[in-house]
Amino acid sequence: MSSINSLVANGGSSKTPKSDDEDDVPADLHGLDIREDSEGWNDIEEDAEELTVKCLLCDDLSYSVSKMADHCQREHDFNIIALRKRHALDFYGSIKFVNFVRSQAQAGNFKPQCEDSAAWQDDRYLQPVLENDAVLFSLDELDDVNETSLDDDGYLSGSTDQNEIATLRAQISTLQAHHDAYREEVSKTLEKRWTEAPDRTTTTADDEEIKYDKSYFESYSYNDIHQVMLQDRIRTSAYRDFIYDNKHLFEGKTVLDVGCGTGILSMFCAKAGAKRIFAVDNSAIIDKARQIAADNQLLQQITFVRGKIEDFQELPGGVKEVDIIVSEWMGYCLFFENMLPSVLYARDHFMKRRSDGSLDGLMVPSHCSIHIAPMADPDWIADNVTFWSDVYGFDMRCMMEGALTDVVVQHPPESTVAGRTKGQLPVRLWDLHYAKIEDLSFETDFVATLDKKIDTLDAWCIWFDMVFSADAPTGKGSAIIDPMEEQQLAKRTGAVTFSTGPLSMRTHWQCGVCVIDRKADDTHALESGSQLNSKLTFTKGQESRGLDVKINWKAEEGDEVGEQLWKLA
């Protein structure tokens, strides 16, 4: 078993994701029944929702925009009505003005200079600073408050109360229309600004990568892929357990969720007390994620942004740093889909830093590792890979195209594993606080020792383990760390781990099975205890999100030797 599984089996303190009736759960992909697996999900009571208007410059709450404007005039000497009239602000100009003032207050400037309207002309002020900002949806109420509504001292007259009541009643029926119009316009403007590619008249390699990226992001626009991920109990519960069991790390913090999908991780963070979460995704699923957050009364904390994280120099509201980055970036054999570079970009550009330049934030998850083991089970190989050679007496081997050159994504039973590395340790362990893109392509030597006699080596099985550590990095560190540290990481207070290996419950990632392409007479029996001196190489595939896996091996004794390349594309 993997080092993580071994630790748990031997009574270590590492916490694996909670699962109901775990002993009775079959080792296949489970459906996620929230009613049965709800521990910790609803441990924070929802506040009653009510319509409130927050002051542009402080935390005071009013029940109408006109009352808020009166408060700004009386308490801050800031005349919203006069400024809108002076600058002849239309609907979108008013939106930019409101977001500009809020961003200034958020930055600590409670007396913003509004003499020149150029200060808020940037399109970034179309993005709300305060999520679900009632002021933005009630600008028509300010239109009803004109100079004649002011008293001799320049304040709003109390005689407008009846008008306010009528306005509020009308506002209830028109609020959704304003909301939809605002969202549509902001979405069009920001999407054009953030995701529109420059015109090109010739085809280049970059064009092909953009086309591939577009196809990749579109694949995440549909429900099926998100349902599969959410129904993966091991995956989803690991994130939930870590976030809920370490609420002290998230309380009052700013979080960036890279590749948010349905927003489940962002909502976990919101429930754990995060002050603000930026959920970024470049697929159309983000529209549904926003609706999901709204349906669960979490839009006040979560800001959804569509686009590639690499295209952002700052986050909405001018936010330039975050305390925590959370992401579910893993693909088959860990690095397929090549999403981790986007997470590392987010870390390098948005993670909070100390005065010496070192990271002062937390990556969730924090560590990842690769495991590999020899496989020997001709019956399993025949049933799952090479059965096309004889189908009811017919030769259908043409259907096997790619079966011996591609990584086969399957979850083989434990019985197929014929040996392990020393100490059942990973062959590579990364600390994601320090890993660089160049660290993701690698070659590493390892020795696999057989634990049973086999007639022939049929395949290699590759999987990954994940560690969620509650310990933030201290100073400088190493991207590649000693594989023996994986067990120590799993023992730390607050840590959560999971494995995708054949000795663990099946996940939607399953394992990567690299079937050896050998002729019928090219077989070599190996005794228990035999050692295979080997090398594993991971390189980026020809397609930008593909992965090439190469394995070299040679038995210390006997004639077994081989070298083969497999692809994930």
UniProtKB/TrEMBL annotation:
Residues 1-16 have a biased composition (Polar residues). One of its GO terms (biological process) is methylation. Residues 1-38 are annotated as: Disordered. Residues 255-332 form the Methyltransferase domain. It comes from Cryoendolithus antarcticus. Keywords: Cytoplasm, Metal-binding, Methyltransferase, S-adenosyl-L-methionine, Transferase, Zinc, Zinc-finger. It catalyses: L-arginyl-[protein] + 2 S-adenosyl-L-methionine = N(omega),N(omega)-dimethyl-L-arginyl-[protein] + 2 S-adenosyl-L-homocysteine + 2 H(+); L-arginyl-[protein] + S-adenosyl-L-methionine = N(omega)-methyl-L-arginyl-[protein] + S-adenosyl-L-homocysteine + H(+). This is type I protein arginine methyltransferase. GO terms for molecular function: histone methyltransferase activity; protein-arginine omega-N asymmetric methyltransferase activity; zinc ion binding. It is an enzyme of class 2 (transferase). SUPFAM superfamilies: beta-beta-alpha zinc fingers, S-adenosyl-L-methionine-dependent methyltransferases. Residues 84-128 form the Protein arginine N-methyltransferase 3-like C2H2 zinc finger domain. The lineage of its organism: Eukaryota, Fungi, Dikarya, Ascomycota, Pezizomycotina. Residues 368-556 form the Protein arginine N-methyltransferase domain. Its EC number is 2.1.1.319. It comes from the Eukaryota. Pfam families: ANM3_C2H2_Zf (PF21137), Methyltransf_25 (PF13649), PRMT_C (PF22528). It is found in: Cytoplasm, Cytosol. GO terms for cellular component: cytosol; nucleus. Its main location: cytoplasm. InterPro entries: ANM3-like_C2H2_Zf, Arg_MeTrfase, Methyltransf_25, PRMT_dom, SAM-dependent_MTases_sf, Znf_C2H2_sf.
